[in-house]
Amino acid sequence: MVNANDTIAPPKRRDLLKTAAGAALAAGLVGVANAQTPSAPAVTRGRSGLNILFVFTDQERFHARWPQGLSLPGHDRLQRDGVTFTNHQCPATMCTSSRAVMLTGLQTADNGMFENLDVPWMRNLPTSIPTIGHMLRKAGYYTAYKGKWHLSREFDTKSVERFMTPEMEKYGFADNFSPGDLIGHTLGGYSFDQITAGSAINWLRTRGRPLSDDGKPWCMVVSFVNPHDVMYFNT
User: Fold this and answer.
1) Does residue 139 have a pLDDT over 70?
2) What is the pTM of this model?
3) What are the strands, taking DSSP E only, across 17-92?
4) Cβ atoms within 10 A of the Cβ of 26, count?
5) Domains and CATH numbers, the chain
């Protein structure tokens, strides 16, 4: 585990995204059947980088130390084998706004995603804004996305039967498996998180391994809904 208590000058947007990508859990994990071919392959190979498994949860509070007696072996493993940032802030707390900031590196005022997509005046994240997927592709990575998105309506508001969708290509990601959480749907974590996890595991085994064997670095974002479901319980 590394504590990123940096005191240097604020980094530029591109440098920040590159650092965040490299700092995410990088593992030799590997593997989706019927994987899509990225429509915008990497333009430069460069040297082979570390594989990135970006595990993304929703509405989970950051704890520097978890309460005594709480057993979270998955969290413990990610913390032990990955990187922990302790000098950070959440610039926007709603699903759409927070995700847009994290995936583009732009503040809400610059990316325009100031509200969730369940209101009629909100539009999709502009495809003209590069995401970390685009940036990693330029660095030679194969990029994939699984689970909750909430930055465009193409599949977040459609039938749950549409699991494999090509719309994510224009946002810099292949092999998308959706829905992770339909907009306005309750208990999305209960309904879809296990499916998202299964798709991610399948990808690591059937797509990530061949990529690693060929010396091609990859990044897969695995975006879970929970603990978001707690908002639907009367406490």
Assistant:
1) yes
2) 0.69
3) 52-56
4) 19
5) 13-61+71-232 (3.40.720.10)
